[in-house]
Amino acid sequence: MSFSATKFAQPVPLHASTPRSNDTPSLFKTCSFLGSTQKLRFNPLPTKSHQSASYRRSAVVAVSDVVKEKKRQTSTNLLITKEEGLELYEDMILGRSFEDMCAQMYYRGKMFGFVHLYNGQEAVSTGFIKLLKKEDSVVSTYRDHVHALSKGVPARAVMSELFGKTTGCCRGQGGSMHMFSKEHNLLGGFAFIGEGIPVATGAAFSSKYRREVLKEPALIT
Predict the structure, then answer these.
(1) Taking all residues of the chain, what is their mean pLDDT, rounded to a whole number?
(2) 86 is in which domain, residue-wise?
(3) What are the two backbone dihedrals, phi and then psi, of residue 62, each rounded to the nearest 5 degrees?
(4) Residue 125 maps to which CATH number?
(5) How far, in Å, are 28, 99, 162 from residue 175 at the CA level?
(6) How many separate domains does the chain show?
(7) Is the model's pLDDT at 76 over the cut of 90?
(8) Given pLDDT bands bounded at 50, 70 and 90, which one contains residue 215?
(9) Helix, coil or strand: residue 59
């Protein structure tokens, strides 16, 4: 017995002009995209007096419309400048390009050992580490390449470390999972889950002690 797919997958317009005989008029219609919505009830979005009728004629609001609305409301209260945004974008692009090249070299047999990539997570590294000051410390995990880049370690030094060269940030002895840089306060990547927590705790205590007890000027803001 054979069936035609067209008998089962018949698209229903999202905005039907007239309701079907067995359905009551509602904001959303049952369609192949939403699946069966007989048990789902959607409340219409609240309207505002200054919005035009055409803006809310559909319950499915385009993402671009939402962005435009937020932009109008927050255009005078920007969190970052254009230059800062470009710097963050450049850091994310560097992280993605760096990891893509690491993947190519690893699959070609140019890198040895374990290489844990960070593709797709660049915004996490950039958004968090770029908020830190130079004297702040970072303790990473086994996916530490991009963390090192965001903290300011030169890309050449990180890549050299992956190739086991003496010009690497750990003189070629750390490898992929153990990036370290005293100059940039990168306290290492750690291969085991949770292994860096005691190190991070000690670094936090040291910073707090030097700032509050020793009153070091460089740590007082």
Answers:
(1) 76
(2) 82-213
(3) -65, 145
(4) 3.40.50.970
(5) 55, 15, 5
(6) 1
(7) no
(8) confident
(9) coil
